[in-house]
Amino acid sequence: APGRSRSTCTHMGVFSPGDHVWISLDALVETESAHFASASPFALGVVHELCTRSQVDTIRVHASGAYGEVTVSVPIGALAHANPMLQDECDDFASLSHLNEPALLHLAVLRYAHRHIYTRAGPVLVAFNPFSPMRELYSQATLEAYVRATALAEQLTTGAEGTEDEQGTAGASSASAGAMPAHVYEVAGSAYHSLRARQRSQSIIINGESGAGKTETAKIILRFLTHVSAGESGGAAGARLASHAHDSAPALEAFGNCKTLRNHNSSRFGKLMRLHFDGLGSLVCGSVQRYLLEKSR
């Protein structure tokens, strides 16, 4: 049509009647957004009609509102493709057909509602704080299962490559993705077995906002690494080192943690933990370096 840009017409071809889409409620006028009584900033709908007669391309979308079915006109930029329902069981964001904000948020909310607090994002693990004990998730049997699974995955990865993998733990993590549910033990096991197989240092970076569970995640990883390394050494030295590493946590928290509005045991410092292993995979020593301590508190 005269006066319409080529890019706008191209965007119209992205959607077709019958497509399942996510609607950004922020883009709707107040009278239309009132139909959706939801805490989520997105609503799921189905494309009904493409409207190209106005200056701004819009799409008529059928959606389920708070008071029944509703049809709204949505600007093209406020729509995003929704994934098939069968992908609601997915445990890896990277395997979704459509990667966009509402699709990621939808899967994260679904998994959290079913108490699946870990979700993969390729070689990265996304963890959500459950704010309640989940002891069965970190049982001794679960730990042992991931020790075996990550060791097997590393063997398969290195055997298929025949050479060193520059991606480090990413290769092992992806190899074990289909065998076991997403878990922080998978990250720890991949790092440990990559260390042994490749004889190269490995790093695990834990980041997130206050109260996300970074300190507890570090403790869980430390427990895994000290357990598997003590098993490899077969002696009391590894067990003593593991005990010292775990016993240091309360002392550090006593001097470096404080109560905040969001977290009653918030770490007010950064921590770099180094664990040193010998060629057989036995833990021989470790150190903790603190930095950015908030002395004003």
UniProtKB/TrEMBL annotation:
Cellular-component GO terms for this entry: cytoplasm; membrane; myosin complex
An example molecular function term from Gene Ontology annotations: ATP binding
Sequence positions that bind ATP: G208, E209, S210, G211, A212, G213, K214, T215
Domain of life: Eukaryota
Keyword Transferase in record: no
Gene Ontology annotations of biological process type: actin filament organization
Protein name: Myosin motor domain-containing protein
